[in-house]
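Colleagues,

For the teaching module next term, I've prepared a clean inverse folding example: a structure given as tokens, and then the sequence designed for it. I'd like students to try predicting residues themselves before seeing the answer, so please don't circulate the second half yet.
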């Protein structure tokens, strides 16, 4: 069994990338700051099983606008919202002699393929709860700021946005699955 390819979404500069690997050796070549390190480092981060290795800055920049827009939508629709996650899809070539290794993860013993895919995701535990926690925290901060009177003009309550909230609370609100 060997890793044939992987797909990475929403990780740093790599919005959606599919990498095909050779059976023996693969070499990443590209300009500086093009994503070579990110494309390889991600596998290690996910397989470590440690969510504390991720930060908000690991999310692609395009997701930040989506997150901040979500923080401003009508709360009555929170249960139907989608929050970006970082995903890694691993595709393994499986020889017949290695079939016993993947049987526990197959949905059916009638599988007759030669590839098995596994998705690992760093995503929100509960989208509705995350948005609720953000809104409660923001409302509390705004109430405190209002109580400052004239001094409130120079005070910027935390959080200013959903990304501001997630910068501190990411590990409470997100999980590996």
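(Answer key — instructors only)
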């Amino acid at each position: 069994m060997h890793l044939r390819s992987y797909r990475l979404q929403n990780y740093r500069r790599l919005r959606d990338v599919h990498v095909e690997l050779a059976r023996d050796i693969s070499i990443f070549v590209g300009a500086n700051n093009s994503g070579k390190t990110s494309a390889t480092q991600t596998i290690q981060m996910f397989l470590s099983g440690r969510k504390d290795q991720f930060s908000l800055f690991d999310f692609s920049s395009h997701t930040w606008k989506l997150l901040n827009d979500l923080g401003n939508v009508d709360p009555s629709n929170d249960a139907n919202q989608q929050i970006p996650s970082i995903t890694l899809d691993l595709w393994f070539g499986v020889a017949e002699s290695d079939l016993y290794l993947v049987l526990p993860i197959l949905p059916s013993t009638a599988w007759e393929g030669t590839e098995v895919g596994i998705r690992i995701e760093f995503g929100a535990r509960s989208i509705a709860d995350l948005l609720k926690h953000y809104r409660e925290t923001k409302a509390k901060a705004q109430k405190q700021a209002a109580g400052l009177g004239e001094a409130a003009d120079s005070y910027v309550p935390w959080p200013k946005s959903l990304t501001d909230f997630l910068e501190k609370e990411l590990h409470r609100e997100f999980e590996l699955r």
